[in-house]
């Protein structure tokens, strides 16, 4: 029987039967590029411009006794703006005014995102799903999600494999509730600890930051775009955002081309080449050109040189910043024009492009091809993620994927590996579990939100394990654990040092938990960007002294923390200081007078258990500092890899930091030996093989983080005094020896020459290996006989 094919209206007639025609953009068998072009060809100008608008998502659902549904605000935004993305739909915190009560638990979150996507698919002309972007730097910023240590703690593990596993968990939890794009990793170099967002960074060194960022991207995205439980990463903040003058968040930076190319851009390059699907522009300018309207950054570097195929998104309201804080655009239409032409694709806010970009196109100021390019980049990611085929999540699987016991165990593992032992005089640590009395003192000893860091949603109290809970769980049932807060982080109105001293006098040992806080509260007011309004003479004093917007002029412990610590040390009882904080604070007095110090940064929900594991010897610490700890703000910048010449001492103090980059102690000891360096040169590249042995010469099993530094002894442009080029964290049982092996190529030693070309120059290089940047125990040299070009 002969089949008849007749196209009739929008229907396909096959052998006498009717079925809906499958439009090319909905055909998953076609190449993504073809689907993108077909869909763009069907879109109006208004739909194209709207597709580039990313609105605040927590306003797009309603929750009450009747259930969860889309809000009128979403319907209005879709009707009038044709939006393509939402940001932070599931976010909860004081800025969003979403609490444990009116926010969404994981099951409710899945219902909300499904309702939103169902509205987009069923109630819009083309049925284009939204891309839902979520904050995810140290866990999905949503109620019920697993909370990991902040990035500065993650970096202290010096363990990219572990961070990749952690990122996979974050992706799984975000994906389970409907998020398909995670904001993170933050790849800013934090070289001024006054900066409020130091906790969000991986530290001061480009190599370490790059390794951690690459691990996050791999964990988020997996091997193939669109895989189950995987999301695309958004790299932040492009670029040099972490070194603002005076430490002022979002302020101007003073960075030259060579520093950009050799230090600030390489972490982004590594993450882009690992496949990152999105990049976010920074608020700052570079040499007078705002990052959100900088074609050299967004087109020349990112796309042409690195081959980036994803989309670029503004930071919140940064397009509007061209007419405001930067004053480089005469009006909002001009700002939209500058940004789209520079290569910025997506507007986080919905107010930067929108009507402004529409007017720019209609008036002939912007070519429609620029809009089409931006839309195609976004749509490509939507198709690659499988959003058109699977816009919804399985609500029945949420409990199996969010906040599981497996994920909690990984949170504890990351927190333990992040702990840095700074001092252990006379081997005070680890403590005995059978002590009669332990006094746990301090504002951060039993405060769940001070332990979690910024970009954390409200969480159930019983979910978070504080230091007090960890100590009580670790000691024997016959040990009495006393707790006195003693003081707040900043507020001095309720200090009670006398009660703390009384408790310590009755104890065998005092565990004093001090530091800082990024815990947002409902008393603080916030800017439109989400950063806090900071008032030096605010009538209400919160604990918050770190986190976005809370820049510091000093790095001292605030409030009555130091007097509390000093009074406890005067008792003569053994004291262990535990610091929980988001930036390296002034520990000069403690380093001189307190016998044992451990730093946990913001250790996340399992932080208390991880800290107790270290305090009582269930875990041998091996964390290393990813930033240098200054003695004074007057030393800043004090990062280890400053350009030559080496810093000389000041009149009052020496130029060295209190604790150097890469520093960290263990309960055992390691010996380095047998450094061997072998160089093999070829026509276009070389290999430098570096091998050495590390032996555990102590009486405990442990882990060592061996670090490889390189010194370019003579170069055509000034290079750092030393530069990290490799590291490895390995377990070594007592009495055993492990080999460490590294390999360098021309890419590891390249520099941006005076002729503005990349090259690796001939000459001598010094190889330094050891446990920290200021304690390199072995040294050898090798020599390159010729230059290598790129």
Automatic annotation (TrEMBL):
A Pfam match: Glyco_hydro_3
Record's keyword terms, sorted: Glycosidase, Hydrolase
Ranges where the Fibronectin type III-like domain occurs: 704-773
GO molecular function, one term: beta-glucosidase activity
Keyword Aminoacyl-tRNA synthetase: no
Entry keyword annotation includes Hydrolase: yes
InterPro entries for this protein: Cellulose_Degrad_GH3 (IPR051915), Fn3-like (IPR026891), GH (IPR017853), Glyco_hydro_3_AS (IPR019800), Glyco_hydro_3_C (IPR002772), Glyco_hydro_3_C_sf (IPR036881), Glyco_hydro_3_N (IPR001764), Glyco_hydro_3_N_sf (IPR036962)
GO biological process: glucan catabolic process
Family to which the UniProt record says this protein belongs: Belongs to the glycosyl hydrolase 3 family.
Protein name: Beta-glucosidase
Organism expressing this protein natively: Sphingobacterium haloxyli
Higher taxonomy: Bacteria, Pseudomonadati, Bacteroidota, Sphingobacteriia, Sphingobacteriales
């Amino acid at each position: 029987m002969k089949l008849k094919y007749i196209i009739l209206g929008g229907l396909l007639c096959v052998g006498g039967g009717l079925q809906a025609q499958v439009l090319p953009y909905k055909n998953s068998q076609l190449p993504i590029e073809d689907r993108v072009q077909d869909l763009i060809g069907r879109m109006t100008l208004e739909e194209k411009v709207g597709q580039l608008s990313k609105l605040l998502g927590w306003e797009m659902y309603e929750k009450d006794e009747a259930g969860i549904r889309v809000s009128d605000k979403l319907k209005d935004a879709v009707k009038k703006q044709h939006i393509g993305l939402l940001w932070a739909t599931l976010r909860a915190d004081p800025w969003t005014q979403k609490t444990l009560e009116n926010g969404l638990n994981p099951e409710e979150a899945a219902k909300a995102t499904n309702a939103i996507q169902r509205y987009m698919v069923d109630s819009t002309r083309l049925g284009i799903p939204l891309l839902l972007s979520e904050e995810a730097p140290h866990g999905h910023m949503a109620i019920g999600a697993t909370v990991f240590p902040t990035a500065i703690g993650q970096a202290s593990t010096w363990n990219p494999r572990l961070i990749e596993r952690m990122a996979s968990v974050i992706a799984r939890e975000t994906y389970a509730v409907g998020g398909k794009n995670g904001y993170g990793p933050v790849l800013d170099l934090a070289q001024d600890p006054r900066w409020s967002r130091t906790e969000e960074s991986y530290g001061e060194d480009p190599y370490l930051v790059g390794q951690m960022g690459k691990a996050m991207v791999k964990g988020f995205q997996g091997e193939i775009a669109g895989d189950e439980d995987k999301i695309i990463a958004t790299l932040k903040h492009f670029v040099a955002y972490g070194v603002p003058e005076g430490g002022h968040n979002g302020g101007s930076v003073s960075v030259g081309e060579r520093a950009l190319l050799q230090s600030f851009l390489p972490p982004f390059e590594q993450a882009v080449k690992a496949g990152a699907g999105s990049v976010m522009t920074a608020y700052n300018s570079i040499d007078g050109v705002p990052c959100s309207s900088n074609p050299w950054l967004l087109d020349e570097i990112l796309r042409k040189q690195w081959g980036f195929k994803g989309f670029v998104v503004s930071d919140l309201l940064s397009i509007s910043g061209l007419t405001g804080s930067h004053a480089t655009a005469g009006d909002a239409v001009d700002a939209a024009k500058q940004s789209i032409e520079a290569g910025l694709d997506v507007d986080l806010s919905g107010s930067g492009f929108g009507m402004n970009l529409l007017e720019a196109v209609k008036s002939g100021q912007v070519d429609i091809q620029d809009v089409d390019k931006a839309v195609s980049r976004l749509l490509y990611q939507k198709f690659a993620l499988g959003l058109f085929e699977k816009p919804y999540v399985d609500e029945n699987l949420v409990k199996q994927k969010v906040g599981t016991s497996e994920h909690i165990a990984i949170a504890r593992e990351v927190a333990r590996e992040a702990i840095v032992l700074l001092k252990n005089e006379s081997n005070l640590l680890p403590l005995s579990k059978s002590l009669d009395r332990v006094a746990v003192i301090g504002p951060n000893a039993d405060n769940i939100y001070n332990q979690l860091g910024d970009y954390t949603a409200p969480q159930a109290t019983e979910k978070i394990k504080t230091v007090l809970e960890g100590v009580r769980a670790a000691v024997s049932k016959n040990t009495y654990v006393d707790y006195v807060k003693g003081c707040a982080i900043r507020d001095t109105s309720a200090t009670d040092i006398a009660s703390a001293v009384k408790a310590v006098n009755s104890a065998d040992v005092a565990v004093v938990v001090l530091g800082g806080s990024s815990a947002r509260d409902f008393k603080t007011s916030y800017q439109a960007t989400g950063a806090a309004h900071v008032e030096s003479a605010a009538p209400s004093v919160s604990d918050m002294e770190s986190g976005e917007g809370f820049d510091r002029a000093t790095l001292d412990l605030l409030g009555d923390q130091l007097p509390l610590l000093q009074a406890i040390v005067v008792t003569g009882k053994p004291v262990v200081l535990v610091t929980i904080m988001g930036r390296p604070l002034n520990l000069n007095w403690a380093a001189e007078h307190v016998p044992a110090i451990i730093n946990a940064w913001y250790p996340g929900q399992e932080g208390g258990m991880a800290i107790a594991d270290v305090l009582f010897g269930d875990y041998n610490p091996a964390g290393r500092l990813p930033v240098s700890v200054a003695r004074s703000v007057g030393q800043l910048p004090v990062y280890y890899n400053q350009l030559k010449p080496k810093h000389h001492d000041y009149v009052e103090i020496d130029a060295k930091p209190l604790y150097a980059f890469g520093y960290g102690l263990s309960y055992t000891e390691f010996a380095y030996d047998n450094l061997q360096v072998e160089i093999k040169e070829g026509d276009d590249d070389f290999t430098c093989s570096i091998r050495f042995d590390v032996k555990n010469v102590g009486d405990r099993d442990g882990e060592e983080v061996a670090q490889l530094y390189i010194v370019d002894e003579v170069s055509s442009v000034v290079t750092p005094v030393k530069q990290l080029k490799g590291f490895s964290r390995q377990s070594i049982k007592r009495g055993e020896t492990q080999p460490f092996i590294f390999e360098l190529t021309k890419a590891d030693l390249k520099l941006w020459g005076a002729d503005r070309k990349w090259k690796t120059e001939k000459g001598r290089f010094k190889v330094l290996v050891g446990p920290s940047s200021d304690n390199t125990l072995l040294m050898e040299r090798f020599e390159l006989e010729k230059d290598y070009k790129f």
